[in-house]
Design brief:
- The complex is a heterodimer of chains A (95) and B (494).
- Chain A has three helices and two strands, in the order αααββ.
- Chain A has 95 residues and is mainly α.
- Chain A has a domain at 5-42.
- Chain A has a two-stranded antiparallel sheet with strand order 1-2.
- The longest helix of chain A has 15 residues, at 24-38.
- With 494 residues, chain B is α/β, with parallel strands linked by helices.
- Chain B has 15 helices and eleven strands.
- Chain B has helices at residues 9-18, 23-35, 48-63, 105-112, 158-165, 182-188, 222-232, 276-291, 307-322, 343-354, 357-370, 375-398, 423-427, 434-438, 468-482; strands at 43-46, 74-78, 116-121, 171-176, 191-194, 214-219, 262-266, 295-299, 403-407, 443-450, 456-463.
- Chain B has an eight-stranded mixed beta sheet, sandwiched between helices. In chain B, strands 1-3-2 form a three-stranded mixed beta sheet.
- In chain B, helix 8 (276-291) links the parallel strand 7 and strand 8.
- In chain B, helix 2 runs antiparallel to helix 3 (48-63), helix 7 (222-232) packs antiparallel against helix 15 and helix 9 crosses helix 12 (375-398).
- Classes of the chains: A mainly alpha (95), B alpha/beta (494).
- The interface between A and B is large, with 50 and 74 residues.
């Protein structure tokens, strides 16, 4: 399927990656090439086949619903680009 | 380079136990080799101080008679593993300066076993690549060289493969989502195993595609792989897909006796346009296993052709979800904002600056295949095809096949800087390895010979789930029959 620049722009927006307008045609072309490759999957008869959810037939490990970790705000914030007064700081969100 | 660095991991262990050398001595030799390997660009973060402390502690343990196999052994750590207080950036600019406050389970297990970390290793950004050219640190150079062109060490674990092939350390951690241990191992003449999905904990390893990612060792030979793998494996309650199974003594399984084993040769792996020397290598490997007493059978894995396209839906889909966390809020890079920029601009600019081109491409492809209206057509269809690919393997194993022999890669190491304007062409590197990830199976790449140019080529053996011990033994028999002793000429520290 050919991807147009409008679709490429929409995908970039959904992915929260800024793409300059002049880059969109090349991006759309790359998407088209990759999706063209992926489209081979349409040749496969998948009727009655369940989508795989787990590659090994095992039940996910469960643990007791108790607090196992926490109370270390300094460690959590240590790598933040902007942390203030025990919080992550971001630009104003609410108008 | 010190002669000590010519020891295998097993040889270094034995020398330590006999008291012929010390971990401090080995670590100094390793650090010297690391320092002299700068032109390879394999090591990207210096951990020499940690290494010397670990070496001293290891020597004390050895003297006290408490020395697991890995105790005192210098190894390299792929940058994808979070190591406490040490830069762990997945070779991405978006994690610039990130120093985790915690240790990955696999690196912790290696340290608990006494291993010594001599540095963090270069890789493709977020493990997305087959040539190590997507790294924010610049590409790694393969220690193997013919003519004047620099060759790729493979990817994504290219720093690991180059470091081991150049004999700067006795083993290195790798991770494998579509072939990222086995392809670089093949390109550098070393051995690498991806264990069964769930054998190694994924906790603390920067996630690429969680249903495919597995860690594994990269070493000089099969015995070394067995030793290092055992130290990396084991149940971890912090990874919900970790297998609660006992870890066998893998090294003890290496008898070299494969009489009566059944080896499958899958006809779908004989690709159109396959290089003659790859075909010959495969035929020679088959003959060797037959001579060693194995029964050879032709098998069919009918959905092989669809593995790569399924992978290039599933892996980007999972990546787009996993990489959503890089938003400039909790760690790593945040873009400088203009006046009036809000939180959306912060996300968009941060991710545009922080992610390289291939990572952006895959995140966006993943976003597309998961988006409303396409989820069923792409993502669910790919997961159905994945189920069929796994059924192909289940069937041949149920029919009595013990292991499957294939080439590891379609070619030997290629030149760096090769035109890759078509991303799909680069994806074809994974054609023989990616099925194994989709089916969650163990796979090992064993160096098997040299091509006409004098570059190493590998063969891949694929085993049954959880039967790494048996797989390693078959690989051991193949290794003995191949007798590969190639080693790159040292041009980098001259």
């Amino acid at each position: 399927m050919a991807i147009d620049t409008q679709t490429a722009a929409r995908v970039a927006k959904l992915a929260r990656i800024k793409v300059e307008d002049d880059q969109l045609p090349a991006l759309a072309e790359e998407f088209s090439a990759i999706l063209g490759f992926i489209e081979q999957l349409n040749e496969v008869d998948v009727d009655g086949v369940e989508p795989m959810t787990s590659v090994t037939p095992m039940r996910l490990y469960r643990r007791d619903d108790v607090v196992t970790d926490g109370d270390q705000p300094d460690a959590v914030l240590k790598n933040a680009p902007d942390a203030r007064e025990g919080f992550f700081a971001v630009p104003k969100v609410v108008e | 380079m010190s002669d000590l660095m010519n020891l295998t991991l097993a040889g270094a262990r034995d020398a330590l136990r006999k008291g012929d050398t010390s971990s401090v001595e080995l670590t100094e030799a390793s650090l010297a080799a690391v320092g002299a390997s700068k032109p390879l660009n394999a090591f990207v973060h210096d951990t020499s101080e940690i290494a010397m402390d670990q070496a001293k502690a290891a020597d004390a343990r050895i003297q006290a008679g408490d020395a697991p196999d890995m105790c005192g052994i210098p190894i390299g750590m792929k940058d994808l593993f979070c190591t406490k207080g040490v830069n762990s950036q997945a070779a991405s600019a978006i994690l610039n300066g990130f120093k985790p406050e915690y240790e990955s389970t696999v690196s912790q297990k290696l340290f608990d076993a006494g291993a010594v970390m001599v540095g963090k290793l270069n890789m493709d950004e977020f493990a997305m690549g087959s040539s190590n050219e997507t790294s924010t640190y610049g590409n790694v150079v393969n220690p193997w060289k013919v003519g004047s062109d620099d060759l790729t060490p493979g990817g994504s674990s290219g720093g690991s493969s180059a470091a081991v092939a150049a004999r700067t350390c006795f083993g290195a951690t790798g991770t494998d989502t579509g072939g990222s241990i086995r392809q670089p191992a093949a390109f550098t003449g070393i051995t690498g195993i991806k264990p069964t999905y769930g054998r190694c904990s994924r906790w603390g390893i920067v996630a690429f595609a969680s249903s495919l990612d597995q860690a594994g060792p990269m070493t000089r030979d099969v015995r070394d792989c067995a030793i290092m793998l055992e130290a990396m494996c084991g149940f971890d309650p912090k990874d919900s897909t970790s297998a609660d199974l006992a870890v066998p003594n893998f090294e003890a399984a290496l008898t070299g006796d494969i009489k009566g084993k059944t080896i499958g040769i899958p006809r779908e792996y004989r690709m159109d346009g396959m290089a003659d020397e790859i075909e010959k290598l495969w035929a020679d490997g088959t003959a060797m296993l037959k001579d060693a007493g194995a029964k050879i059978v032709d098998i069919s894995l009918p959905h092989t052709k669809y593995a790569l396209p399924a992978y290039y839906v599933i892996a980007p889909a999972e990546a787009s979800s996993n990489l959503a966390r890089y938003d400039g809020v909790r760690f790593g890079h945040r873009a400088t904002l203009d006046a009036g920029d809000g939180i959306t601009e912060m996300y968009e600019k941060t991710r545009a600056e922080g992610f390289g081109a291939e990572v952006q491409r895959r995140v966006m492809i993943g976003t597309y295949v998961l988006s409303a209206g396409f989820y069923d057509a792409y993502y669910n269809r790919a997961r159905r095809v994945r189920a069929l690919i796994k059924q192909d393997f289940d069937q041949v194993f149920a029919d009595g096949v013990d292991a499957i022999l294939t080439p590891a890669t379609p070619s030997s190491a290629f030149e760096l800087g090769k035109d890759v304007s078509d991303p799909v062409e680069m994806y074809l590197n994974d054609v023989f390895t990616v099925t194994v990830n989709l089916a969650g199976l163990p796979g090992i790449s064993v160096p098997a010979g040299l091509d006409a140019k004098g570059l190493p080529l590998g063969l891949q053996l694929i085993g049954k789930p959880w039967e790494e011990a048996d797989l390693l033994n078959t690989a051991f028999a193949l290794e003995q029959a191949c007798g590969f002793e190639g080693q790159p000429q040292n041009w980098w520290s001259a």
